[in-house]
Amino acid sequence: MPKVSQEHLERRRQQILDAATDCFARHGFHATSMQEIFRASGLSAGAVYRYFPSKNSLIKAIAENVVNEVLTPAIDAISGQRLDPADALASIAVIFKPGGLRARTLPVSVQMWAESFRDPEMADLARDMIDRISKLLAQVLPPGSPPEAVRLIMAALQGFAVQSGVLEDVTPELVAAASRAFAAPQKDASQKQE
Amino acid sequence: MPKVSQEHLERRRQQILDAATDCFARHGFHATSMQEIFRASGLSAGAVYRYFPSKNSLIKAIAENVVNEVLTPAIDAISGQRLDPADALASIAVIFKPGGLRARTLPVSVQMWAESFRDPEMADLARDMIDRISKLLAQVLPPGSPPEAVRLIMAALQGFAVQSGVLEDVTPELVAAASRAFAAPQKDASQKQE
After folding, report:
1. d(CA B122, CA A42)
2. Hey, are the CB atoms on B130 and A163 less than 8 Å from each other?
3. What ipTM was predicted for this assembly?
4. What predicted TM-score, i.e. pTM, was given to this entire model?
């Protein structure tokens, strides 16, 4: 019997995650059954359960993908630059580029947050994600930055994720402009003193 | 037959909304049936349907209550002060006081946002709420403020609402500190030049 390659396993895992992301985004987390995920992925129950024993384990893997493959690279791209919080948020706003994170995984993230108010497992997952992202963010701000600055960057990213569900204009440009406009009055004041 | 007073009607309406808010917050929007809302409110189906013909109409009334009774007073309290965006957000953060908005209606708001990604009626409601709050916010900023500043205040309020589901420390003090820390580097720079 030929040995199943690591690459094959990873491809199959991603195939299931893609199908689940589509189902959750389209019908919601509660209204999606594991049966629908088997069907959408084109795989048997046994094949899917081998990778993901439950809907919660699928949500968890989708959330981890967002952190590892979208947020982490966007934050890494400004590592070492020690930007002010407003400029850091403006740079990370690249995650809102149309066709990126937006269409597929954002609805699932917002569902996870809604669930976290009453499902302890989802709350643990949301807390863990916020914690991991906050640590990454703290590293790109200037040394000695107040830790609360990270909380506002985090909140803004979550809030724009929410807004992207109903407003077409949530783009990297809009988020960057909003970030700088929020901090701008101080900038203007300092320019006048030069 | 005695005429039913306006006050009585309003009290009964609020009784239904309170019951629905509790049900949605505890079990989620999808898992709550109208039957459970009849039971929780202690009223008959006929009595409830007289005020609210559907679950969506209940969600809409709850969202309107949040805007009219919590957000509008918090924003009105700083009207005429023409605060910088960071100070405006720090003031409006009073909505996160423990025991206020937080425990009951925030979970319902976040559910509405999650639904808005695929339910056109919820999307219209969310868009309308964002629009109304944005107009109120624009009035408290200094004349000529860039409109994008309002979008960041809005996003931060939504993001902290999301965070409050899993983090105990989302208080008016934390949100105010986060708001000022985000804009602080510019403030520090201008102070050094004085």
Report:
1. 32
2. yes
3. 0.90
4. 0.91
